[in-house]
Amino acid sequence: MPVAEVAATLLGQAGPVDGRPVVVGVDGRSSSGKTTVAGRLAATVHGAVVIHTDDVAWHHAFFDWADLLADGVLTPARQGLAVSYRPPAWDARGRTGAIEVPGGAAMLVVEGVGAARGQLSHLLDASLWVQSDLAEADRRNAGRVAAGEMTPSDFAAWMTEEVPFQAGQRSWERANLIVTGTPGLAHDPSTELVVADPPGREPG
After folding, report:
1. Does residue 140 lie in a domain region?
2. What is the number of other CB atoms lying within 10 angstroms of the CB of residue 136?
3. Would you say residue 203 has pLDDT above 60?
4. Is 89 helix (H, G, I), strand (E, B) or coil?
5. In angstroms, what CA-CA distances link 97 with 55, 81, 84, 141?
6. Whether residue 41 has pLDDT greater than 50
7. Contact, 28 vs 181, CB < 8 A?
8. What is the pTM of this model?
9. Which of 25, 77, 89, 133 could disulfide-link 116, Cβ–Cβ 3.0 to 4.6 Å?
10. Residue 144 parent element (H or E)
11. CA 79 to chain centre
């Protein structure tokens, strides 16, 4: 499916909105391709913005950050307000900058593990699950550890929490669309995404 059509489908789930961005969660497992998919979606919508749950969670908690994202970013953005949010750990540790959502943004894409978690579903207009081949995701994760993005012990601690978290959330069951972040089907990666057939429709 063309990336622009995927974006249009997600925008259409919101129906009419007045003076605020359509909020879309892009969820999936670690190294599934969420960041890539979110960026490609946003690139097709003028005025779209991507934020990352890793920034909200930075030095706070792996997954206990839903209240920060809801109160600091999603609620004011849905009120049509410009957002410039600094999570508590940013001030405590001297991180510069802020999580920014300008006023007048057309789409707000929230990307990360847990972006479409149940606690945030009332603040999302649509969600997309990025499904990954486990062997390829493991290979990508190993590459990130080898590159020094995280230590082996930090990665092990992350996965110890991620696996039961995702199993409990089952965010793919609430997703409006499921795409693959590790596609084996022939497609043009610059313009297309590989999208699952909706339940009840014959494949093809």
Report:
1. yes
2. 17
3. no
4. helix
5. 11, 18, 9, 28
6. yes
7. yes
8. 0.90
9. 25
10. helix 134-146
11. 21
Average pLDDT, the chain: 91
Tens digits of residue pLDDT in 44-95: 999 999 999 999 999 999 999 999 999 999 999 999 999 999 999 999 999 9
CA distances from 116 to 21, 89, 152, 171, 195 (A): 16, 23, 27, 6, 18
Q: Residue 65's domain spans which residues?
A: 3-11+19-180
The one-letter amino acid code at 41 reads L
Of 189 and 86, more confident: 86
With respect to residue 194, please indicate whether it lies within any of the assigned structural domains. no
200 assigned to some structural domain: no
Q: Is residue 37 part of a domain?
A: yes
Residues 6+ apart with CB under 8 A from 165: 62, 63, 113, 114
Alpha carbon separation from 179 to 57, 185, 198 (Å, rounded):
25, 12, 11
List the Cα angle 73/74/78 in 5-degree steps. 120
**Token representation of residue 53:** 């749950």
Length, in residues, of the chain: 204
Our count of domains for the chain comes to 1
Task: Compute CA distances 30 → 65, 134, 151, 176, whole Å.
Answer: 17, 10, 15, 20
The CATH number of residue 118's host domain is 3.40.50.300
